[in-house]
Amino acid sequence: MILNASAIPIPSEVTLPFAGFLVSQGSLTLLFVIITGILGDLVGSMIGYSIGYFLEENLLLSLIRKYGKLILVTEDDYQKLQVGSKNMGAR
Question: pTM, whole model, 2 decimals?
Answer without folding.
Answer: 0.61
